[in-house]
Amino acid sequence: MAINIRWHSAHKLSAEPTVEEKIEWHRVHEKNCDCTPFPKKLKDEAASRGISLK
Asked: Does residue 1 surpass a pLDDT of 90?
């Protein structure tokens, strides 16, 4: 799996992100970098909150 260093450098999560911030970060991350998959736990949380991952 390749890491997009430029993207990661420009898109840092805060020290204590909210669940919504984590979900949004991973949603955008998945479109820009393929170093890790979207965590299942966050996918499940997004679904339970009715948050679209598209």
From this structure: no
